[in-house]
Specification:
Chain lengths: 264, 201
């Protein structure tokens, strides 16, 4: 059963990798404080608990990788994976914004991919229980299986997206930007920013009561209206702002009385 | 519609016919505080709810009156007038409001407990995000681990790069970068229509 034997290597490798972050990374204790584990143990003890989990993972991983095959090693991995699922469920339930703290130093709240990864590891660990011979007896097959399954685990790890997924997408967008064709009109936001810088706006801003009511273009001008209140009653403040140039000093304003009944 | 166009023409001639670029106190009457029709009163105690502000979701619409249930289940009634600005992705009119829309409103509390709104923002959201992917007319965003789909609306979506004036060109947005998005939420989904995206370039 080379397939079952290969799982020892895969699961063992993933466990070692997970423990490596917890035991060796220099920001491990800071990361631990942001993880779901901090909710379980309290922030004072979380660094120790995080390292302890890492140590257990390291021992289980090394035992799985090392030659003599005992089903107990794989059962330990099954227990770890099942515990992981429970831990994720607890995190999703009680601390949805806390980090998983699983495979890397990136802050990654518990989401569907985390559950999928723990589920995959549980299945692989269960498969490893049936192994009878060491994976070293069929090294080529093991490498092949490890590459495929490793790719699945990496794909299910949001912590690692910045290493492969984001660069891939960045490269695709650099080659041909999907949004490069929107580029003609002067956006309204630009005119509003220009209005805010104008003396015309500053001279009446104390009287304005509403946000932008209406806007339209008139030749080189863009007209913007606001509701305003003066000592003589409600008025409409009309601003004319240069549309095609950034010249806030040319902006004009007029206050027009609101004659009719304003209730809709 | 003809009404609106006529009013616009009238207002255009009012502002473009004048040469007033700045209104001084004398053109609009005295600016002494006691002369203001509605002097700004800061009578809200620290920590107390601002009576002139309402947030929540629209649970009913009757003419110019919006029934709103706040996130703390407070019920409010909001009057919309012709002097009320309504924002829903862009400046729009009161008839754009729908039951289910999220709402922020600022105005004046009336003696009967209703709010006469000066400004209403429907479904407005302000998100600090990372851009995880860019597609055709769409930005995929990561908001503290949650995925949000940001729809680019041609002719409306604008970008502000490095605090320079807004432009319609979104081609400087990069995958993996941080961005701030002002947009209009599509109620009960994880999708927003993007009004303005602030990013470094």
């Amino acid at each position: 059963m080379w397939l079952a034997s290969a799982q020892q290597a895969v699961v063992g490798g993933v466990l070692l990798w997970a423990s490596g972050y917890k035991l060796l990374h220099r920001n491990a204790s800071a990361h631990a404080r942001r993880s779901v584990l901090a909710r379980l143990t309290g922030t004072e003890r979380v660094a120790v608990a995080y390292r302890a989990v890492g140590a257990v993972e390291a021992v289980a991983g090394l035992l799985l990788l090392a030659p003599p095959v005992f089903a107990a090693e794989a059962y330990a991995a099954v227990a770890l994976s099942a515990g992981m699922l429970g831990y994720l469920a607890y995190g999703r339930w009680r601390a949805p914004e806390s980090s998983c703290g699983c495979l890397g130093d990136k802050h990654t709240p518990v989401r569907g991919r985390g559950f999928a990864r723990a589920g995959v590891l549980l299945v692989l660990s269960a498969l490893a229980v049936t192994a009878t011979e060491p994976w070293l007896n069929s090294p080529l097959a093991t490498v092949g299986v490890a590459v495929v399954e490793g790719a699945v685990v990496v794909a299910l790890s949001p912590e690692l997206d910045h290493r492969w997924l984001i660069p891939l997408r960045r490269w695709r967008v650099r080659r041909r930007h999907p949004l490069s064709r929107h580029a003609v009109e002067i956006p309204l936001e630009s005119t509003i920013q220009q209005l805010w810088k104008s003396g015309a706006y500053r001279s009446v801003v104390e009287q304005l009561t509403s946000d932008l009511l209406d806007h339209w273009d008139e030749g080189e001008w863009r007209l913007l209206t606001y509701a305003a209140r003066t000592a003589d009653g409600p008025v409409t403040a009309v601003f004319a702002v240069p549309r095609l140039a950034y010249e806030p000093d040319r902006a004009r304003v007029a206050l027009v009385p609101v004659a009719e009944d304003i209730f809709v | 519609m003809a009404d609106i166009l006529g009013r616009r023409r009238f207002l255009s001639s009012a502002v473009l016919g004048t040469s007033a670029t700045v209104l001084t106190a004398t053109t609009i009457g005295s600016l002494a505080p006691e002369a203001l029709a509605d002097p700004v009163k800061l009578d809200v105690e620290a920590g107390a709810p601002d009576p002139n502000f309402v947030e929540g979701r629209i649970t009913g619409i009757a003419g110019g009156l919006l029934m709103v249930t706040g996130s703390d289940r407070t019920l409010n009634q909001i009057h919309l007038t012709k002097a009320t600005s309504v924002w829903k992705l862009r400046p729009t009119t009161a008839d754009a409001a729908r039951v289910g829309d999220g709402l922020y409103a600022r105005g004046v509390r009336m003696p009967d407990g209703t709010l006469a709104a000066d400004a209403v923002w429907l479904n407005i959201v302000n998100l600090q995000v990372h851009i995880t992917s860019i597609g055709r007319d769409v930005l995929h965003l990561d908001h503290h681990g949650d995925r949000i789909v940001g729809h680019v609306v041609s002719g409306t979506t604008a970008a502000v790069y490095n605090n320079t004036p807004a432009v319609g060109d979104l081609s400087l947005l990069e995958v993996g970068r941080h961005a701030q998005v002002i947009g209009a939420w599509r109620p009960d989904t994880n999708e927003v229509d993007v009004a303005t995206v602030y990013a470094a370039a």
